Amino acid sequence: MSPLVKIRSERDQMSAVERRIADFVLDNAQLLRDYSSQQLANALGISQSSVVKFTQKLGFKGYPDLKYSVGEAIARADNGDEVEAATQVRGEAAESPATGLWRRKSEAEEATRLINPPQTLATVTKAMAKAGRGGKVFLIGLGEDDIHARDFAYKLALLGLPVVHNFDLARMAANVSSADPGDILLVFSEHGNHPALCKVGRHFRERRGMVVSVTRHSANPLRALADAALLVSAHDERPYIQSLLYQSALQHLLDVLFVQLCEGDDARHAQLVANLERIEKVMEP
């Protein structure tokens, strides 16, 4: 894994000092070879030991190892990787807003892919498929989080899975009373710290259902409660860009789950085709 991709994917779990170091490395990757660990520490106004601990936490032997790895990544970019070259060599200043946004979305999607192991995706997909055979898939999200919950609920319904979707906490709390062992609840919450959603999750687990959290790649109460966690890595200093990156990376993650469900069962795929045809006929003037 590229050291820069690794830093991006781990940033949301870093301390404030570690995030400062991470941002400096990401923004000045092409200049890192000219900095010693002490010079980097001086530039950020932190201790040299903080820099060393940062590199070791990422899995490097020390700062020289990190600097060498970043230099190799830049060299590979110079040899033909246009996306990395744009990121690490030309810099954001040379990009148009459209190109920069496209690149940042690609980086967020790649980082999100790396922090969601295939076995986790397989576990969630299997649980949804199992719930569809006599059980139910519950989904809830509040505010902007409901946009993704609602869209994913629609896709699951197209596959013939029994879906219970709600954006109203009171209604979902009532619906949870009908949950059975083997059902699954997907809770969409970007920051994962809404107390009411955690209560819904705990009630669902009392019914012996499986809770899946969909949050940022950060320590949060909802993620700690969940049986499985789907994580999104998306960061930018500009709030309006960061929101777009999160939505893009989350959508890509959900699309991967949907494709796995489509390709994992011929009957579900046939149901999807039949439902799409039925909807097309209904919508005909």
UniProtKB/TrEMBL annotation:
Chain intervals for the UniProt region annotation (Disordered): 85-115
Keyword annotations of the record: DNA-binding, Transcription, Transcription regulation
The keyword Transcription is annotated on this UniProt entry: yes
HTH rpiR-type domain residues: 1-77
InterPro entries attached to this UniProt entry: Homeodomain-like_sf (IPR009057), HTH_RpiR (IPR000281), RpiR-like (IPR047640), RpiR-like_SIS (IPR035472), SIS_dom (IPR001347), SIS_dom_sf (IPR046348), WH-like_DNA-bd_sf (IPR036388)
Record-annotated SIS domain positions: 124-259
Highest taxon of the lineage: Bacteria
UniProt protein name: MurR/RpiR family transcriptional regulator
Organism this protein belongs to: Rhodanobacter lycopersici
Source species taxonomy: Bacteria, Pseudomonadati, Pseudomonadota, Gammaproteobacteria, Lysobacterales
